[in-house]
Amino acid sequence: MTTSTRGAAKTPAVLVLEDGRTFRGRAYGAVGETFGEAVFSTGMTGYQETLTDPSYHRQVVVMTAPHVGNTGVNDEDPESGRIWVSGYVVRDPARVSSNWRAQRSLDEELAAQGVVGISGVDTRALTRHLRERGAMRVGIFSGDAWTGVRDEALLARVKEQPEMTGANLSAEVATKEAYVVPAIGEKKFTVAAVDLGIKGMTPHRMAERGIEVHVLPATATVEDVYAVEPDGVFFSNGPGDPATADGPVAVMQGVLERKTPLFGICFGNQILGRALGFGTYKLKYGHRGINQPVQDRTTGKVEVTAHNHGFAVDAPLDKVSDTPYGRAEVSHVCLNDQVVEGLQLLDQPAFSVQYHPEAAAGPHDAAYLFDRFVSLMEAERA
Q1: Closest listed residue to residue 137, CA positions, set 167, 115, 161
Q2: How many other CB atoms are there within 10 angstroms of residue 236's CB atom?
Q3: Catalytic positions, please?
Q4: Taking 70 as the threshold, does the pLDDT of residue 67 lie above it?
Q5: Which burial class, exposed, middle or buried, applies to 148 when counting CB atoms under 10 A from its CB (0-12, 13-18, 19+)?
């Protein structure tokens, strides 16, 4: 990726999809070239949390909301230490940041972190194309990366890029060293959290409930997990193809063998699915945004939830399944397309959901899931 920022707003840019369709616009953020998987997010707000979500590693995010950037950027809302998206696509970027918390513009932040973007694109047409054809590889080119280069050559560059299927990415975004997020107020429990691409708000939500969270690298072993003497074990969200995550699957199976209370979200849900013997598969265009309807089948309640996933668990919706760790069932389902959104074991304290109950950004309908995790640890202690 090459970058520069001078005159970016007036610099022509082009977006090239791997099926040959192109969209022309203007550079937004850094000028240069970038590649990734083209996906779309339906969130009307929360772009700063989206950009800094490690689950978006190697993805070019198309914003379906037409006007982006009006609240600027601050230093309180990031979910990690950097922007993780490979590229950013917007229709109408805000010319002025008007929020009282803004410290700089979104355009400036993208440029400062070397994120190549494009604006002035018909994002509705692009989103419809991705819905019909599926998520696919894409490149954004501006400045010297596009000047004098034929579209056929740009398309060839896009097709050279690796696909998301088969990508093993969690270790690239996870912490390299273990760290501790202390409990807020009285410490009640200790949790070992395996970082597969964790968002900062997630251990904070647990800390609010009196949990001391030991965040461990994606390469952590079963011995590493139990060295912290946990009352519960957590597996986080993260990027890539769950079919490649053999290490985390083995660690989770070790936790299931010990029957320690277990909670997983997003990638952690897919890891639990694999640990129980279910398969995983790639969705056509995935679920990304903060307005996805999910039903908790244990209560019948419908939640509006925050999502970011391109893969899902292949588990039967209509029956209880026998697994090496006892009976398991689908606990949550997406009401848009019946995709598995949660799993739970019936014979030991383990469950997971495919979405993001930490809700940063997003609605707080699913916050009770952290309380459910606490209840499992309380029952186990009793």
Answers
A1: 161
A2: 29
A3: 266, 356, 358
A4: yes
A5: exposed
Question: How close are the terminal C-alpha atoms of the chain, in Å?
Answer: 55
Say if CB 1 and CB 144 are below 8 A apart: no
Q: Could you identify the residue written with the tokens 């970038």?
A: 34
DSSP string computed for 15-52? EEETTS-EEEEEEEEBEEEEEEEEEEE--SS-HHHHHT
Q: What is the mean pLDDT of the chain?
A: 95
| Residue 225 and residue 257 in contact, taking contact as beta carbons nearer than 8 Å | no
Burial of 317 (0-12, 13-18, 19+ CB in 10 A): exposed
Nearest to 262 by CA among 340, 352, 180: 352
Q: At what angle do helices 267-275 and 246-258 cross, to 10 degrees?
A: 70
pLDDT in tens, 318-354: 999 999 999 999 999 999 999 999 999 999 999 999 9
- Given a cut of 80, whether residue 101 has pLDDT beyond it is yes
Strand partners, 190: 212
Look-up of token digits 């395996």? 194
DSSP at 325? T
Q: Write out pLDDT tens, residues 146-205.
A: 989 999 999 999 999 999 999 999 999 999 999 999 999 999 999 999 999 999 999 999
Pair 277, 252: CB distance under 8 Å: no
| pLDDT of 252 higher than 90 | yes
Q: Give the strand pairing for 116-119 and 179-181.
A: unpaired
Separation of alpha carbons 85 and 30, rounded Å: 13
179 secondary structure, DSSP code: E
Please give the pLDDT value at position 8: 67
Q: Which two tokens stand for residue 225?
A: 């997990």
Which element (helix H / strand E) includes 290? strand 279-296
Q: Residue 363: count other Cβ atoms within 10 Å of its Cβ.
A: 14
Q: Are 173 and 199 in contact (CB under 8 A)?
A: no
Q: Residue 5 has what pLDDT? A: 47
